[in-house]
Amino acid sequence: MYVQRLEVRDFRNYTHAVLELGPRIQVFAGRNGQGKTNLVEAVRYLSVFGSHRVPTTVPLIRAGCDQAIVRATVLHEGRQLQLDAQLNRDAPNRVRVGRAPRRVAEAAGQLATVLFAPEDLALVRGGPETRRRMLDELAVAMRPRLAETISGYDRVLRQRNTLLKSARASRVGTGGLGTLDVWDEQLVDLGTAILRQRVALVGSIAGPLARLYDLIADTDAGATAELRTNTVAALAGAGDASAVRAEFADRLREARPRDLERGVTSVGPHRDDLLLAIDGLPAREYASHGEGWSLALALRLAGAEALRAVSPAGDPVLILDDVFAELDAARRGRLIGLASGYEQVLVTAAVLEDVPRFADRPTAVVHVDRGRLSGDGVIVGGGAEAVDG
Ligand SMILES: Nc1ncnc2c1ncn2[C@@H]1O[C@H](COP(=O)(O)OP(=O)(O)OP(=O)(O)O)[C@@H](O)[C@H]1O
């Protein structure tokens, strides 16, 4: 699939811009702080209805405006799909697919994207929640219905923790905690589904991760990814849902006195981590900057491979934000070679020459200068003077 047309209005530093894009390598080039990432952020927004840079959508609305619009026409196997988002400063955001209003959970994933950005170094260096979020986003992209399971688990977990805290405060005895049994049952059901999905997902990305890391870093160091959980003792038996459920329930029951004492749930997939290692050494503590960068990139690309293997939406749009400046010439060449296998690749770069031309695929260039666009496929180039026109 690929984005055929992108339109933004009052989005970040754009007043109004319209671009025709194609099944090709599409480079957005310009000096720092001009609006390159803002454009790929708009594309990504229509995929997950969130930003990879900020937790809320207000910063996406152009300063001084009350509303931003992001629209795209996506082409998938010859069929056009219209995606339309209205971001409101003081009202709920709205999403339409075609002409029909949709809930975010229904619209997410219609446009499949995989984005790699500088922030992704946190996948290697950051805390376990960053890696859990990566796994969850990928799982939802592969199976959109999982979004409900994950949000259901988070809700039950919050409610269980609230109950544990209030029980601790009022010193309610374990016997007076009948509702805790209800939450535990739901937590076990939803958590079992999440854990099993993660086991399968990590199984499917581990091989590509090792291969892609070696390729990008030009090494045979061997990068590994392994799921660590306290929900069950051994992941080998995760194929058997009822066994996982039973063991998770046992562990939760055993942990109850401790959970009551501390006011938090200590067992479950919300404590999972994805252990990344290079040559057997935990990457979080041992990897150099360059190694960490290559590993994070390999992890995203492994996710893209897993997604393209199962996704009914076909090839995800690959977005590489500010990647090439970090790599030496040989790594740049290998990355563009890998990326060029995707139907559409969106690349941002401060220095155009950092992005090697790949002979087998057409490359289009849009120049970005203070929220104004020029170059291949630009229909409306934006800029402050265009806003009232
Ligand atoms: N809501 C907003 N309203 C107006 N301007 C904004 C808004 N959000 C961001 N900007 C402006 O957008 C610019 C940054 O754009 P962007 O992050 O796309 O930069 P970039 O071209 O990718 O730069 P770099 O190469 O440094 O990553 C900044 O000048 C910032 O002030």
Write a structural description.
ATP binds at residues 30-37. One of its GO terms (molecular function) is single-stranded DNA binding. The RecF protein is involved in DNA metabolism; it is required for DNA replication and normal SOS inducibility. RecF binds preferentially to single-stranded, linear DNA. It also seems to bind ATP. The protein is an alpha+beta fold and 389 residues long. It is built from 10 helices and 16 strands. Strands 7-6-5-4-1-2-16 form a 7-stranded antiparallel sheet, with helices on one face. A 6-stranded mixed sheet has the order 8-12-13-3-14-15, sandwiched between helices. Strands 9-10-11 form a 3-stranded antiparallel sheet. The longest helix has 40 residues, at 178-217. It is globular. The chain starts with a strand and ends in a 9-residue tail after the last strand. Mean pLDDT is 91; it is low at 385-389. Bound molecules: adenosine-5'-triphosphate. Adenosine-5'-triphosphate (ATP) is lined by residues 12-13, 30, 32-38, 59, 61-63, 322, 348, 350, 368. Residues 12-13, 30, 32-38, 59, 61-63, 322, 348, 350, 368 line the site of adenosine-5'-triphosphate (ATP).
Task: Compute the separation of the termini in Å.
Answer: 33 Å
Strand content: 15-25%
Low-confidence stretches at least 5 residues in length (pLDDT < 50)? 385-389
How many DSSP-defined strands?
16
Bound molecules: adenosine-5'-triphosphate
What is the CATH architecture assignment of the largest domain? Up-down Bundle
Average pLDDT works out at: 91
The profile of the biggest β sheet is: 7 strands, antiparallel
Helical coverage, percent range: 40-55%
Number of helices: 10
Oligomer: single chain
Structural class: alpha+beta
Neighbour order of strands in the largest sheet: 7-6-5-4-1-2-16
Query: How many separate domains?
Result: 2
